[in-house]
Write a structure and sequence with these properties.
heterodimer; A: alpha/beta; 7-stranded parallel β-sheet; 6-stranded parallel β-sheet; 25 helices; B: alpha+beta
């Protein structure tokens, strides 16, 4: 089979000749320099990453295993590999380096990244901030040809239209991709799924599959993954079974050394202990807020208000769920944000007069309150933390700017050095605030959007004044501290009001999900494996939606709500167990180490 | 390599107009034009280092700065006009190239005219798999032909001769373009053979896999036909077989595409090179005569247009001037049998009717009375003093 040789002359030659004809002569020294530069540069064997200088200032930590990995993938594997580093080693960064290098060297034009839905934005942000690459998100079929660098939620684009007999995003298969990246590729373990088939049909010159757990229960899953990457690398499935599958044990290979040898040709896998990266513990601290009788009464009234059908002006339910989705987080955040939301209800004519009256009654009750137990608990926590460590830095999160202002107001008498961090700050302002927090302040109070993507590894105390019901948002909050460079274990304080649904939600999200010893990056994988990482019908995350619906359906019956939360907790635990099983199986089979 | 990089960096920033100071391990660069700072994306001053272990802006084959410097030069030096300078020592030139047998140089002057040739500098970029190679080729075209001049004896300087009439540039470019193909072919073949090995390996993998798949299906079909495998549908198995064959072709094509070699050749600089051509006027003097000889010398082509023998028109590397003022070669030159002076066949056409010897015009005379040619010894001046008369007729 002959090598295809595509020989061409540059179209720009005419421009050079025109310059001569027009006698636009330059200096001979420049011409010599130009040739010298090419000669000096052309001594470039693939020894290093040309693009590294362009990105190194954007990387907080320069980790050798990341550059080594990128170089190995490009040089030894022609850009096609299974990147199976353990979680937390920065597969995204290594992949970003591969993409940037390919683009800078001019090998690659068209790049597609397929990721789980919940990671699309994170990928876009990382590639932009660290690699100055602007990836366009595929929202509809018409987006495919609008950019060379694109990213898509695999769940969204893999849909097979049975009626039409084709993939809805079939156009993606018509584009010759120079590089295709599939994140969380262990989801491609079954060959008969539309997901697998969608990826298999892609025209791809270079292909990166990213997963820390290439298989879970059965080595056939690993075969299927590699079958996608490189046909025949592990033979036919019959050959694979005969050569590598041990009867009675689907996880342990029959011929482990030979399997590992074959895998090494297409796989890059590093373990945490090889990289010297230390991971610190997340210590959950649930702080129970005991409401006064008056506060509890108000809380119950709010719940009653939210479960009634008095929302519409004509007595009909006014898209009740959506309103609850919007209001519930605000009224549970702080008394100030509750009053703010209730005032809107009381003043809006679209609501039924009874609804408005109930809202107004609650506002009146709030105005008579003499104590705010939640804020008192907060002050108690801050005091405790600062007593334990005078130099402690505390990052306090709230969902709502109104609550943020309220907390600042309430903390004013305590003469704390506080930095306020909200959305809408310029890069310069953000840098200044981070510096102020690092140098002088004891407390930084931030909303989610404020601190997105920022690093606070110098701080190890986080307080969730209110808790998002989306575990990924909580993971993002903790992720600001839980980064490479964190030197101490992290204390994660979360306020939970006794005998309210919040108590159960905090327990679920903190104790059962975010602080159970998982390394950063593992929870999204687990949720993705469970199919819980994509938004639900309402646009909220699926878990948040499940919790909200449970709140609505339980009609303020805490026991029913607690049962539902328990159900979600079981589901998550199953996901965690499966994930750990996969991790152990991978370690045993691929690394030759006991799990 | 480090020294080359340092020299290059020094020259680059000086050419930009920046001030560069050499501190041994590094170069300190200030006053960099804002245009470059913006292009590079970093503000001055720069500390240029050539060793990864020293902190600063690294200039190395794989560094970003070198890449940006190269890119910055992309649009400069596309068209260049230069002059080749040659130091001609006329006396030694004559001495080195001509043997003076019966004469000496009384005066020699060189008149200079100018000629020009083109140098086309091409960059060929090879892209294959994840590799990129660049090859620089320079082709000189002079008078429509690709030449290989020896420039070592010239110095190069900038010139302002913008009045050069450029008429055949595009034809010459086409000539260069045709020739460049030959120059890149060698490297192309080498890379293609490396790729061929890799491609064969990949195709082999695909073939082995698909052959085995088809074989396994055939075995199943055989079992179905023999009745020992009832769970499989033979039509479905046949369909799978067809699918595998089609898939094999697709994978092979994909591998071929992956292993494709792309090479693009780009003209990066066209240089017009002005060079001197000399016309050396030399006066040779023999005992009786002085003769002007013009010698043309093109130092670029190392081409000397030597004088020709007046008689046989052969090129001469010896200067012989006959006493009849002819420039002659050894074959055409002869001695007068009387005076033994150098003469030539033209001058020695006459034979003395007395002695029957070939003698030159200086030695012979024609008798005005009998018209016989005789040695002047046999002659006397006639009474009118207008000619000679032989002693027989006197």
């Amino acid at each position: 089979m002959a090598i295809i040789i595509d020989e061409s002359f540059s179209d720009d030659d005419s421009l050079v000749l025109e310059k001569v004809e027009q006698r636009k002569f330059g200096s001979a020294d420049s011409a010599k320099l130009k040739v010298d530069a090419i000669i000096l540069e052309k001594n470039t064997e693939f020894k290093g990453l040309v693009s590294y200088d362009m990105i190194k200032d954007n990387l907080t930590y320069k980790l050798k295993h990341q550059t080594d990995g990128a170089l190995h993938i490009l040089k030894e594997m022609n850009g096609s590999a299974l990147l199976a580093d353990e979680v937390g080693l920065g597969k995204t960064i290594t992949t970003g380096m591969v993409i940037k290098e390919c683009l800078v060297r001019g090998f690659v034009n068209k790049v597609l990244i397929l990721t789980p839905p919940s990671l699309v934005d994170q990928w876009v942000a990382e590639l932009n901030e660290k690699f100055n690459l602007n990836f366009k998100i595929i929202e509809s079929e018409s987006d495919w040809n609008t950019a060379d660098l694109v990213i898509a939620s695999i769940d969204k684009v893999k849909i097979f239209d049975k009626e039409a007999g084709k993939f809805r995003h079939q156009i993606a298969h018509e584009i010759p991709w120079d590089l295709l990246v599939v994140d969380e590729a262990h989801k491609l373990k079954q060959r008969n799924t539309t997901r697998w088939k969608f990826v298999d049909r892609m025209q791809k010159k270079r292909f990166l599959l990213l997963t820390a757990t290439p298989f879970q229960n059965d080595l056939i899953e690993l075969y299927n993954l590699l079958h996608l990457l490189r046909r025949g690398h592990l033979g036919t499935i019959q050959e694979f079974r005969e050569k590598f599958l041990l009867r009675g044990n689907k996880r342990r290979p029959l011929n482990p050394l030979e399997l590992r040898r074959r895998l090494q040709e297409v796989m890059v896998r590093r373990k945490r202990e090889e990289t010297g990266i230390e991971y610190k513990k997340r210590i959950p601290k649930i702080e129970i807020v005991h409401l006064t009788l008056e506060e509890k009464k108000i809380y119950d009234s709010i719940c009653d208000l939210l479960k009634t059908k008095y929302f519409s002006a004509n007595g009909e339910e006014l898209r009740g769920k959506l309103i609850i989705y919007a209001i519930l987080p605000k009224v549970t955040s702080s008394s100030r944000s509750a009053v703010e939301s209730l005032t809107k209800i009381a003043e809006s004519e679209k609501y039924h007069s009874q609804t408005r009256q109930i809202a107004q009654d609650i506002i009146d009750a709030y105005s008579k309150l003499t104590k705010d137990s939640k804020i008192e608990k907060l002050i108690e926590i801050i005091d405790k933390v600062l007593k334990e460590d005078r130099d402690a830095k505390i990052l306090l999160y709230t969902k709502h700017p109104t609550t943020l202002k309220y907390i600042i107001e309430k903390l004013e008498p305590y003469n704390l050095k506080i930095v306020e961090f909200t959305g809408g700050l310029t890069r310069q302002e953000k840098t200044e605030k981070i510096e102020a927090f690092k140098k002088d302040a004891q407390l930084m109070i931030s909303t989610e959007t404020g601190a997105e993507g920022l690093n606070f590894q110098f701080c190890n105390v986080l307080i969730n004044y209110d808790l998002p019901w989306n575990p990924m948002s909580v993971e993002q909050r903790i992720g600001r501290l839980d980064r490479i460079g964190q030197k101490r274990d992290m204390k994660i304080y979360s306020l939970a009001t006794k005998d309210t649904m919040e108590e159960h939600v905090v327990d679920l999200i903190i104790n059962k999900m975010c602080c159970i010893g998982l390394v950063i990056g593992e929870l999204p994988t687990i949720l993705f494996n469970l199919g819980l990482d994509s938004p639900g019908k309402s646009g909220l995350s699926k878990i948040e939606e499940m919790l909200m619906n449970s709140f609505i359906d339980s009609k303020n019956n805490l026991e029913i709500f607690a049962q539902d939360v328990k159900g979600i907790s079981k589901l998550i635990q199953k996901g965690i167990d499966d994930y750990n099983e996969a991790k152990n199986a991978t370690t045993e089979a691929l690394d030759g180490q006991p799990a | 390599m480090d020294n080359q990089l340092k020299a290059f960096s020094l020259q680059f920033f000086r050419e930009l107009g920046a001030s560069v100071s050499d501190s041994g391990d590094y170069l300190e660069v200030k006053d960099v034009p804002p245009k470059f700072q913006k292009f590079y994306g970093k503000n001055e001053p720069y500390k240029l280092v050539f060793d990864k272990s020293i902190s600063g802006e690294l200039v190395a084959p794989e560094s970003y700065l070198l890449k940006m410097m190269r890119a910055y030069l992309d649009n400069s030096g596309d068209a260049v006009l230069t002059s080749l300078n040659y130091k001609l020592h006329v006396d030694s030139f004559i001495k080195d190239n001509l043997k003076l047998l019966n004469c000496s140089v009384v005066k020699a002057t060189a008149n200079t005219t100018h000629n020009f040739m083109f140098k086309f500098t091409f960059q060929t970029t090879y892209k294959y798999l994840n590799e990129e190679e660049k090859l620089i080729n320079e082709l000189y075209v002079d008078e429509g032909l690709v030449v290989n001049p020896d420039l070592s004896k010239f110095t190069v300087s900038n010139t302002n001769k913008k009045d050069i009439e450029i008429t055949e540039l595009r034809d010459y470019y086409s000539t260069a373009k045709e020739n460049i193909k030959g120059l890149v072919n060698e490297r192309t073949s080498k890379i293609a053979s490396v790729l061929d090995v890799s491609l064969s390996k990949e195709i082999n993998r695909i073939n082995i896999y698909h052959d085995q798949q088809v074989k396994e299906i055939d075995e199943q079909i055989a079992k179905v036909n023999a009745g020992s495998l009832k769970s499989k549908d033979p039509i479905e198995l046949e369909r799978q077989k067809i699918q595998f064959v089609a898939e094999r072709d697709l994978f092979v094509q994909n591998e071929q595409k992956k292993h494709a070699l792309r090479l693009n050749t780009k003209l990066i600089t066209t240089t017009i090179i002005d060079y001197p051509v000399y016309s050396i006027e030399t006066f040779f003097k023999s005992e009786n005569v002085t003769r002007l000889v013009v010698i043309k010398f093109d130092p670029l082509k190392n081409k000397i247009d030597l004088p020709l023998c007046d008689l046989c028109k052969n090129s001469l590397n010896e200067i012989i001037i006959c006493n009849g003022n002819h420039l002659v070669c050894r074959n055409c030159g002869a001695r007068c049998e009387d005076c033994n002076q150098i003469s030539c066949e033209t001058c020695l056409r006459n034979i003395c009717s007395v002695t029957k010897r070939k003698i030159c015009r200086q030695c012979g005379r024609v008798c005005v009375k009998c018209k016989a040619f005789k040695n002047k010894r046999f002659m006397d001046a006639d009474a009118g003093g207008r000619g000679f008369i032989c002693k027989n007729c006197y």
